[in-house]
Structures are given as C-alpha cells and as structure tokens.
Design brief:
This protein is of the alpha/beta class and about 375 residues long. It contains 13 helices and 15 strands.
Length: about 375
C-alpha cells in the first residue's frame, strides 16, 4: 500500500507540509539538521503513532505549538485511496481512517505498514530481547492481522497475573492460576505465529546479508519461545508458580521469548563489526518487508535515513542494488545525490530538497 500524499501541520520544524510521492523511490536531499529525518519521522508517525528516534511523543509538536497533525492518503494509483490522519496534543494521540475515528493505532498501521533503516538500526542486533520481540510482532501483525487480538489478550492476562503475584498473600497462588488458561491459549497463538514468521524470513535474511556483505555468509535464526520446549505453557506456568510468587512476576511465556541470531554458528554480536551489524540488521528489516509481500499483504513502506553511515562504498553499492529490487515504496535521505544515486535506477521516482524546514520537489 503506497503513501500517495502527506500533509502535516506544526510537526517538528515544519509549519506546513503538502507533498505527493512516487510509489517507487522518493529521494530526500538536504544538509544535516535541515529536516530530512523529520520528514521521514512524519511518515513513521502516521503509520506507527510514535517516533523512531524519540521515546517522547511531545517533542514531535513544533516548538511553541499545542498540537500537531499529520495526514495522508494511501492506495494504488487508481481510485481515491484511503485517508489517514493523526492528531497529537495535550489529550494524546487521536487517529482517523476515512474520516471516522480509528479504533487504535493498529488500524492505521494496517493501512500504512512502515519500517525504518537508520543509523541506529544495529540496535536490533545489539539491543535487548524486547527489541527483537517488537520486530517479530510487527512482522507477524502485517501478515496475520488477527494476531493483534491474541497478543492483546495475552498481555492483559499477564498484567492481571503479575499484579496478583506482586500483591502476594495466602490466596495469591490460587488467584494467579485462574489466569493460566487464558495465558495458555493466547500465548500458544502468539508463539505459533512468531515461530512461523521466523521460519519464513530466515532464508531471506541469509540471502540478503550474503549479497550485501559480498560473500557467502551462513546466517541462522532460531526462535526461543520463553518456556521449555517439552512443556505446554499451562504446565510451565504451574511448575514455576512458586518461583513466580517469590519473584513477583511470571517467568515463563512469550513475553520472555528471544530471536537468536547466529553467524557461522556463533552469536551474531560476537561475530560482526559495527558496519556488519548494520548490514545484518538491515537484512532483517528488508526480509520482513519481502516476506509480507510474498504473503500477499502488499508492498510496504521503507524509510532509509542515512543508511550509508559507517558503511564502505562496496557495502553501500550492494545495499542500493537490494533496495532497487525490494517490493516496497522507498523514502531515502542523503546530503548529496551521489550518496543515493542507486535509488534512481531506471529514472523512476521523485526527488525532494529540504532546507530550513521547507520541502520542495526537484526536477532534474
């Protein structure tokens, strides 16, 4: 699903934006601190309801303003498309789809599946298990939209069980066990979907990583479910109940899952340099997009912000070659056209220049 147009009011450094995009490559040029990343951030916010570089949403509102609005239209070239909108103010985030109040950010995310590769993409590899769980969950959601409901049921039951364990008391064990059936059913759904996702993207990750690194590279992904393989989740919860009561939280379940990434049989973090870590992390993101397209979920939107940072010219050239073939709408930033020339393969796409919070389309 391509983002055909984007508008914004009082977002970051932008007073106002009104842009139309190509469904292939969109090149965004400008000096450092000109607002290139903020433009990508507006797209990300529309699809995710948050920033990819800041935990605090409030910083997205232009200084001195009380609220910001971002809106866009997604769809194929023919037809009116679907209108999306988000408002961020003192009351929080409010979304709309086709003029109607959105049920949640997930509704916008289903229409605008957006991923990002930025200078910090290596955190996917070097960060904690929670980063990789979010990566898996996003990938599953855009292939199996029913997954979100299962994940929410599991998260709710887990919160209730943990609250009981923290409170303690003589009846805590019995009350905690009352949530185990829901955790077992919804947790099994989450586990099945994640395991299938990891199996699907594994071959893509190895192929893309080897291609960009410029040599054969054995990359293996393994999904660690968060409780013993020989047990059902309900049984694992029962067997760990005493330990759960001592610790005040649930120690087994999909919330403890991990995506194990190995290169040549060794943990990836022990094998790769910073640049190689970026390549491998980027391969994970690109594989997620390719897998969703193969599953018939359409082409996603990929934001590439200063992807060449800390990559040698050989890595960069091979990365552009992979991006050229990726079934996605791409938005790529750079200081100069020479950095991103590969993104204009075949002469297709649009180019924009950002300066002092203003964006204009450039025609060569």
């Amino acid at each position: 699903m391509a983002l055909r147009s984007l508008g914004a009011r009082d977002f970051r450094c932008f007073v106002e934006l009104e842009l139309e995009f190509a469904d292939s490559f969109n090149i965004v040029l400008g000096d450092n601190a000109s607002g290139k990343t903020s433009l990508l951030e507006a797209i990300y916010f529309l699809g995710r309801g948050r920033s990819f570089r800041e935990a605090r949403r409030r910083v997205l509102v232009r200084h001195g303003c009380r609220a910001t609005m971002v809106f866009g239209r997604v769809g194929a070239d023919e037809g009116p498309g679907v209108a999306l909108g988000l408002r961020l103010g003192e009351e929080g985030v409010q979304g709309r789809v086709s003029g109607q109040k959105a049920a949640g950010i997930g509704e916008l995310a289903a229409w605008l599946p957006v991923q990002v590769i930025d200078p910090h993409v290596h955190r996917l590899l070097e960060g904690g298990p929670a980063d990789r769980r979010r990566f898996m969950d996003w990938g599953v959601f855009h292939v199996e939209h029913a997954y979100l409901a299962a994940w929410r049921r599991y998260a709710r039951a887990l919160r209730q069980r943990n609250a009981i364990l923290r409170r303690g008391g003589p009846d805590a064990g019995r009350e905690a066990r009352a949530w185990d059936a829901e955790l077992g059913v919804s947790g099994a759904e989450v586990d099945r979907a994640r395991a299938g996702f990891v199996e699907r993207i594994g071959p893509h990750v190895e192929g893309i990583a080897s291609r960009v690194l410029g040599r054969e590279c054995q990359v293996r992904l393994a999904y660690r479910r968060g409780w013993p393989e020989e047990m059902t989740l309900d049984r694992a919860l029962a067997s760990h109940l005493q330990r759960d009561r001592e610790r005040g939280h649930t120690v087994a379940g999909p919330h403890r899952a991990e995506l194990d990434i190995r290169v040549e049989g060794r943990p990836a973090r022990e094998w790769v340099s910073r640049g190689q870590g970026k390549v491998l992390s980027a391969a994970l993101v690109l594989s997620e997009i390719r897998s969703a397209a193969e599953a018939g979920r359409g082409n996603g939107v990929l934001l590439v912000d200063d992807a060449g940072a800390e990559l040698g010219p050989g890595y960069r050239a091979r990365l552009w070659a992979v991006l050229d073939e990726l079934p996605a709408q791409k938005f790529v930033t750079g200081v100069s056209l020479s950095e991103v020339r590969g993104g204009l393969a075949g002469g297709h796409g649009r180019m924009f220049h950002v300066e002092h919070g203003r964006v204009r389309e450039v025609v060569e």
